[in-house]
Structure to design on (638 residues):
């Protein structure tokens, strides 16, 4: 297991380097240049100096290596300084956003909490809805409940989130007036009233994303349960006279959860990256909307950094899912 | 001559068996009917439904109308008949879905066959597949559209340019599932006796692949293809929804929905119709894929 983990970790390095090169080159081809963001009133010689300071005149490979160094060395060092109050990273050039002229990482740090609260809650809600539906529809296969569950899942991953989102806004915000249409990022939870307000404004994005996530996960849960229900050990357990409850919720459920847990782990990167639509629709000021703003504003460093962070998350959680699978299921050994 | 009647019906052809199984899947039949209706609506519709062209003054008067007999889906903020736009948009949306799927399936089958059949290519090609799977696709698609839209529009014109760009961008970012499926199938198929026989009489790899391998991977590829259509239509509408899709005078369902968003508080039907069209298309395509998977699986068929 240890050798497998090490080998996978080592393999992840060239993969990530290649991905970073692809992302860097693709974004670098963009027609926009930081020069277009500088006001025309700035005199030409100053403009040239600004561009030189931004490092845009260097050849591509130098800029790529510099960006890698900034990403993997300067920025973590800055984070270390910020936490421990040291000054190791002083004077080192950081990744600067073209739009705001400030380092990219603190900007992302500001956006992260909103994304994590809203999208993270949505994922959690999705999982919590999906598991019982999957378990019960497998237990009563082909029952009315199962057929409804199947239809729910089919609709859940066929109807795109931007449509469910707009429908929810029309129904719950415009017609019924239950929830606000836009998410208010400046709201600070201090007391009961503001907490209720926070819940109200989170309700719709969480439901939209939660339903979409629940659809897929409930399918996995159901098929995994079905696979285990027909195993010999279930018959043995029943023959021993165990209650249905123990058989299903202890024996079958534990074994069925193994693949589902890995599926859930694989979906976690989408919490960070896949919620672009929902964040835009409801005005949640998170990472997804930061990415869209950066793309619209030709903010190349921001786009490169965000896309690469998403890629790192995907690779990491793929690895975690594979390792989890090996750890949870003793039948699977990677050596 | 012994004329024996065993009381067994004559063996039916594979196609008939698949079709019989497919018809048993209620969802799949529903999907086929709905998809056919949607295709008829957008392809044949414009031939039947052509509201007369309005002069500027008339168009000003017929702005933002609700659904009525004259305009079954209402009119938009410029007085254009919404149903006619839905038909035009449907053509583009469906075309994007099918063409992008064809590109993705072609690439996926090519890479899958190469990786499965030639051992030397297996490692590199599968690493490439893994890398593509780890790419954050929606951000990259957005960046690609953003970067190359103007350049390609300069060569092919804004409409054709947007179509080619979006279709190929979706195609080259969604071939990975098909490649994995095909590789797995080819790995198993190439150990079969008939492939060995074909090789031993001196058939070249190209011929073996074309005659013996490809016909046998058709059924999993067909399932992947139907699901690919659904995915491509959703991806295109996501791009349009973020305002990075087709130009406004060359609408798709996603684009219509995006335009309707500005007015949806007063005219919700302008969001609901395109949204319903997208959802129904994707839903029916998914059901068809489900039915095809069951129908093409010999273990399920005939039971």
């Amino acid at each position: 297991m240890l050798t497998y983990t090490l080998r996978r970790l080592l393999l992840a390095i060239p993969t990530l380097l290649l991905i970073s090169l692809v992302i860097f080159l693709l974004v670098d081809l963009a027609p926009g240049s930081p020069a277009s963001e500088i006001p025309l009133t700035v005199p030409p010689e100053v403009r040239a100096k600004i561009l030189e300071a931004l490092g845009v005149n260097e050849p591509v490979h130098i800029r790529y290596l510099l960006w890698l160094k900034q990403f993997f060395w300067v920025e973590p060092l800055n984070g270390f300084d910020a936490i421990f109050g040291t000054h190791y990273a002083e004077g080192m050039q950081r990744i600067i956003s073209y739009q705001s002229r400030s380092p990219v990482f603190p900007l992302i740090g500001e956006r992260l909490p909103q994304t994590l609260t809203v999208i993270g809650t949505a994922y959690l809600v999705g999982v919590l809805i999906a598991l019982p539906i999957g378990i019960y529809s497998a237990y009563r296969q082909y029952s009315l409940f199962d057929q409804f569950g199947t239809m729910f899942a089919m609709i859940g991953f066929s109807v795109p989130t931007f449509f469910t989102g707009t429908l929810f806004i029309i129904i719950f915000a415009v017609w019924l007036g239950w929830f606000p249409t836009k998410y208010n990022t400046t709201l600070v939870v201090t007391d009961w009233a503001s907490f209720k307000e926070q819940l109200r404004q989170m309700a719709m994005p969480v439901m939209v994303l939660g339903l979409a996530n629940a659809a897929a996960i409930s399918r996995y849960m159901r098929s995994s349960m079905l696979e285990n229900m027909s195993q010999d050990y279930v018959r043995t357990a029943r023959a021993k006279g165990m209650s249905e409850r123990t058989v299903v919720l202890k024996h079958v459920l534990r074994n069925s959860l193994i693949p589902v847990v890995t599926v859930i782990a694989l979906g976690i990167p989408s919490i960070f990256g896949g919620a672009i639509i929902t964040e835009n629709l409801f005005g949640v000021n998170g990472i997804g909307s930061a990415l869209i703003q950066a793309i619209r504003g030709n903010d190349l460093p921001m786009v490169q950094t965000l896309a690469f962070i998403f890629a790192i998350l995907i690779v990491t959680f793929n690895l975690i899912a594979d390792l989890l699978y090996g750890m949870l299921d003793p039948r699977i050994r990677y050596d | 001559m012994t004329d024996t009647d065993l009381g067994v019906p004559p063996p039916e052809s594979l196609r008939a068996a698949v079709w019989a199984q497919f018809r048993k899947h209620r969802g799949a039949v529903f999907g086929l009917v709905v998809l056919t209706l949607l295709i008829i609506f957008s392809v044949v519709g414009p031939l039947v439904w052509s509201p007369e062209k309005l002069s500027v003054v008339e168009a000003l008067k017929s702005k933002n109308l609700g659904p009525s007999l004259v305009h079954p889906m209402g009119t938009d903020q410029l007085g254009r008949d919404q149903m006619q736009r839905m038909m035009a948009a449907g053509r583009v949306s469906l075309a994007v879905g099918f063409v992008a799927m064809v590109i993705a399936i072609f690439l996926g089958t090519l890479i899958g066959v190469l990786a499965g059949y030639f051992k030397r290519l297996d490692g590199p090609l599968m690493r490439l597949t893994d890398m593509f799977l780890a790419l954050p696709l929606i951000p990259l698609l957005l960046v690609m559209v953003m970067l190359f839209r103007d350049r390609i529009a300069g060569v092919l014109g804004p409409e054709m340019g947007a179509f080619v760009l979006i279709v190929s961008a979706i195609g080259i970012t969604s071939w990975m599932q098909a490649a994995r499926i095909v590789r797995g199938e080819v790995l198993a198929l190439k150990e079969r006796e008939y492939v060995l026989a074909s090789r031993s009489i001196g058939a070249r790899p190209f011929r073996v692949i074309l005659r013996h391998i490809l016909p046998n991977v058709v059924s999993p590829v067909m399932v992947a293809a139907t699901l690919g259509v659904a995915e491509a239509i959703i991806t295109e509408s996501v791009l349009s929804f973020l305002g990075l899709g087709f130009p406004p005078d060359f609408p798709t369902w996603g684009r219509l929905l995006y335009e309707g968003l500005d007015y949806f508080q007063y005219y919700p039907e302008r969001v609901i119709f395109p949204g319903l069209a997208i959802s129904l298309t994707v839903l029916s395509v998914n059901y068809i894929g489900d039915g095809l998977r069951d129908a093409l699986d010999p273990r399920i068929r005939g039971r």
